[in-house]
Structures are given as structure tokens and as C-alpha cells.
Amino acid sequence: MVYGIPFSELEIRGFKLLVSKSKEGSVSYSRHDVNGKIVANVVLDPTLDVILVPLKPMLHPRRNIAECIYLRLDPPIAIGAHSRVKVELAIPVDYGVVARSSSAYNIIDSFVDTSIVPKVALYGTSTFGHICRFIQVTQPVESKPYLANTELSISNDTGKTAIVRNIVVPLEDLKIYYKPGTWLSSATSINMSIESDNIANTWVEETEPPTADYEESPDITSSAPSIVGGDLIRLKKLSRFKMLWGY
What we know:
Radius of gyration: 19 Å
Helix content: under 10%
Strand order of the largest sheet: 7-12-16-17-21
Distance between the termini: 36 Å
Oligomer: single chain
Structural class: mainly beta
Strand content: over 45%
Order of helices and strands: EEEEEEEEEEEEEEEEEEEEE
Number of helices: 0
Number of strands: 21
């Protein structure tokens, strides 16, 4: 499995991706599960290339289900009073299938690696809470195709030791980079500032990709309303997040 290279057939754990051409000259993309069942199918303009890229971990980018990612740290991180720590993390990415021309692209399919159980969590109360993609983050950092490396910087601005078990990060400014011809990917850095026993601020820092040969993945954050439980809701676009219900 590699990112950023046009393919006609590609196997990813639990799925087979095919780009096929009929005798009449029409081209189609299809994704098949382990039983051979077609779970996604799109007819394509023959002039388009089809590539695989890593995407923000939103579950369903076109439905805008999640506005944040909810990271559960295992083990938790302890930070001394008025101290700062930096740790390496690896967060899951979604897979995106992109049909591209020389000047444009369009995401025609997206899905999650079958080794990951997709989960959604509510941070906060049912009235004022935020819908998040829930992700368990373990240490040490693992190197796997469905994980993007990132750096987490935590500043403890209080006068006593703080223990961080959870971090809620807005997806709005998160960027994913990948190295074409490999399955390597990385994400922009995450910052957290602790201001009290149960309140912290988080944001994403604009950072360069690891090397010049990395490319930025398409930004699939949509302004379209979300579909939750059959109802349409419009999620707020967040660039900074205040964690009011503990960390």
C-alpha cells in the first residue's frame, strides 16, 4: 500500500480497491470487502488518475460528523508546576480515494482501516458538549500505515502538578502530510495549555512537513451541515478549543 501513486488495483487490510475499464471505454472505481461485496462504486472520467491519500480522522468527511478529535492517552502524562513537555504521538488517519486531474481533485471514497474500531464520543454535557472522534493513543509511538506521527506540546501554567488523560483537539486547522510512493504520513503539531485543575486550551500549530518531498493531503473539512440521527445540524468551525470539563 502506498500513498499518492495512481493505481489500478490496491489491497488494504480488509478491502480491495479496483479501477477497471470496460470494453466500451468507460472507467469505474470500486471498493470490495473481504467477501467480494462492492461497498463503494463510482464511474470516472477516463482522463482522471486515482490515488490513495491519508485524511483527517473525521470518519465521514462529507457528513461532517466530528468537529474535534478526543485523544485518550495511555499512559497519562504528568507535568510539573510551570513546566512544559513535548511528546511524540501517532494518531489514526482515514483513507481517502482521490480522482485527480492536472489542476483539481475530488474525494470519491473514504474509509477507516479495519484494524480500528471507529468510535464517536461527546465531550461535555448533552446541551453544550461537542461531538468528537474518539481515539485511544498509546505509547510508545508505533509505525503503521494508518497512523500519522505528530508532536504534542503541553504547558502547565498552574502552581501544581497536572495529570493529562484526555485531550480534545479541533479538526479545523489540522493538516495531514504524506510521502508519495510510501505509506508514511504526519500531522501538524498539537498544543495544550493548562490553566486550572480542570480547564485547558488546545489548538493546532502550523508546522512544515517532515521533509520537502511530503505533500499535503486534501482538506476535506466541509461547511455543509452534518447529519446526526436523521437531523441536520451545522457544526461550528473551531480553531481553538477550551476544555471546560476536565482533561
